[in-house]
Amino acid sequence: MSIRKHIKYRSPAVTVTAHTSSHRFRLAALLLAMLLCLTGCLSNRPSAYRKYVDALLAANYKGDTKDYIKSTGANVDDVDATYLQNVSRLAENLITYYGLEISGNIDLAPEMTEVAKKIYSNVNYEVSDAYQDNTIYYVDVTVYPINILNQVNDQVVSYIDSFNTRVENGEFNDYVKEDYEAEFASGVIDILSSAADSITYAEPETVKVRIIQTDDNFYIGNEDLRSVDLLMIADVEATDETVDYINTDDDSYSDSSDGSSEN
């Protein structure tokens, strides 16, 4: 008996509300470290704050950790581990979103992680110089959301239809379940990997990020980091043939560093 790959399609009646976390990927906890300011560190506050936030985002999404480590004194292994956790979470969310069953596959699971790295290497954002509002400093982080889920949707739907036709024709009758799932998943991964070579972006959105200051330190809070994070991957636009979103939202979002480091 043939096995049919069951993929749900989003009803056209479903409305995706912008900025609703249940329709976005919840990613790994971002790095958060206080920047200890020595004498003269804040002689140019607007530039110092901008450089800190830019280095923080580059470390989390691009794996470009040099400036972050230099400015905070954070442990290299910890920073690298948090970056890997971040891309691994994106990979896990993609696996869940597309209904792939490859968690135990020693080839395809790492391949999806590489795809996640590739996707995040394309993050596009701008950090403004800090500005003062009363006694509080802020920076504006403008994010151009990666639109890959919408970018590949038609291709994925077409691939699913083609795969289901192959199933109905008995092509996989002699496959064991693991091989069948791997065959399906490899096609989805190939589509995502190819799309990551030519990423498109949704309309930019801006988050006002508060700089939290103590006597000798400054940093940004988890809520602002979360707001920026939720914009990195664009919302899925509901259509007649949108692959149904599987909610992976949870409440495990927390910072991974609570100590201060010397500049």
Short description:
The chain is an alpha+beta fold and 263 residues long.
General description of the model:
It is built from eight helices and seven strands, in the order E-H-H-H-H-E-E-E-H-H-H-E-E-H-E. Mean pLDDT is 79; it is low at 1-29, 34-40 and 245-263. The protein is elongated and about 70 Å long. Strands 1, 2, 3, 4, 5, 6 and 7 form a seven-stranded mixed beta sheet that branches. Helix 3 crosses helix 4 (108-120). The protein has one domain (21-236). The chain has 263 residues and is an alpha+beta fold.
Q: Determine the fraction of residues in helical runs and give it as a percent range.
A: 40-55%
Outline the biggest β-sheet. Answer: 7 strands, mixed
Instruction: Tell me the distance between the termini.
Output: 65 Å
Number of distinct beta strands: 7
Q: Give the total of domains.
A: 1
Low-confidence stretches: 1-29, 34-40, 245-263
Derived structural class? alpha+beta
Q: What fraction strand?
A: 5-15%
What coarse outline follows from CA principal-axis ratios? Answer: elongated
Count the DSSP helices: 8
Order of helices and strands: EHHHHEEEHHHEEHE
Summary keywords:
263 residues; alpha+beta; 8 helices; 7 strands; disordered N terminus; disordered C terminus
How are the secondary structure elements laid out?
Layout: E1 34-36, H1 45-62, H2 66-72, H3 76-97, H4 108-120, E2 124-127, E3 131-133, E4 136-144, H5 148-151, H6 153-168, H7 177-195, E5 205-213, E6 217-219, H8 222-229, E7 260-262
Helix pairs in contact: 1-2, 1-3, 3-4, 4-7, 6-7
